Amino acid sequence: xxxxxVGMDRHSxxxxxxxxxxxxxxxxxxPYAAPDGTRPLVVATPNEHISAVIARVAAAGGAxxxxxxxxxxxxxxxxxxxxxxxxxxxxxxxxxxxxxMSMGMLLLRAxxxxxxxxxxxxxxxxxxxxxxxQFAYAS
Length: 139
What we know:
By secondary structure, this protein is an alpha/beta fold. The chain has helices spanning 10-23, 50-59, 103-113, and strands at residues 41-44, 63-69, 73-80, 93-97, 117-121, 126-127, 133-136.
């Protein structure tokens, strides 16, 4: 990160998230498990566009756990790069969003909509509620 810049870069965010998963005070649940049993993880920052994160999820196999790193905490949720015809959970609302929206704006939108909202993109990608799990960073 350059002096005077705001926020953290993706590599710093990934280090903080991975350290918290490994030695944090609370067990971090990665809800998505791939058919081979692995739990792919993509780390994103609030200033990244959803489309860039979807591209990394696609490269990771089409679906992954996404850790959205904020200044003091990170949230974990599931993102799928293609519509897998996954049924909504009971009582869940699905809302359309634009791929050009930033991850931070998605989190703000989700905080106003509540935990029972999932998101669909024109490309067919789906995003589970970003408010699912929140974790503090390990010291």
